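Section 3.1: Structural characterization of target chains.
Under the original work plan, the team committed to producing a structural model for every single-chain target entering the pipeline before any wet-lab resources were allocated. The record below documents one such target. The sequence was received from the expression subgroup and is listed exactly as submitted; it comprises 408 residues.
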Amino acid sequence: MPLVPSRRRLSLDPRDPSFNQDPYRTYARLHAKAPVFYWEQYGSWFFVANADVNRLLRDRRFGREILHVATREELGLPEPAAHTRDFDAIDAHSMLEREPPAHTRLRTLVNRAFVSRQVERLRPAIAALAHALIDAFPEGEPFDLLDAYATPIPVRVIARMLGVPEETAPQLLDWSHRMVAMYAFGRTRAVEEDANAAARDFARFIRETVAARRGAPGDDLLSVLIAAEEKGDRLSEDELVSTAILLLNAGHEATVHATGNAVKTILETGADPASMFADDAATENAVEECLRYDPPLHVFTRWVLEDLEESGVSLRKGDRIGLVLGATGRDPRVNPDPDRFDPARESPQHTAFGAGIHFCIGAPLARLEMQVALPILFARCPSLRLAEPPVYRDAYHFHGLERLMVTT
């Protein structure tokens, strides 16, 4: 790994297979030698220390949008590309890409649906779905656990919450995967055009669903958003569409890979599921250790909103920084012996869900899905084994498996 600690410079292709399959070896060296470093391929300063990432996620001198404090001309930013117009239109109204007061207004509208007491009501439905999926596992032959189990649970649950027909799940997944490809390093023009087409079709589907729902509101989040939009002062239809797409995408994309990574870790390390999931407290702690050890989202970027000095680095308004969420759980300053998977570790520290105002709104739901799905899986399938060595997707900064072939 070409790292020059004295200059805090890293030259490493994020698509290098040796890095992609195990970024944690690189993170360990960065923690020891250069917890703040300039990643040449990204052209930005990055931070890996748990304390730094937590602090900078909350620091209001940084944000997810920049054009509220400067013009494109001032920053030297190009005009939006015509071939990503539909994708950019959705991004422009996404709460993930906004700062207060717009972010506060949008988040307040959907937050009630994701608070812990509301999410807890879904426990029986998640358990029933988990059992039904396991009942359908093929016998005596390898199968992909991502397709058969880790994917259907979160995508069906978020579809139910929003009030989108569950039978559309395969199409939702296709649109989501194509849109998420926009955030991977080294995207091509073909990827951009495909993501734009997916965004256009996804938005059309949501608008058609909204139009049908206006005359027949239900007990779902989409009906709540429609009611807010119709009041005229809380939510525009463009914001409604972007919010629905964000919740559908984020509501399953990370949880699929958090679950897949967790099963891989348990099987590879020989951890004992019976003790991991002995009771609610043990299960909650074990899930946090899984999220610490191999989280699904590794990088979160922020704009620099003013000229400033940070960690001995001069940053100018319009620069971007990278916060390596996937590295903070391996920080030896907060998690002793960080490369050891320990389901009984006391209070595992991580930033898998971010921090600050952009802390993942679906964190209670993701945690519940893992707390229900993992114990049921290992209780029902005590002989679960890997059928082939798992391989991670070439998709840094998302960190998830291409497939998880297992036998029961």
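The mean pLDDT is 93.
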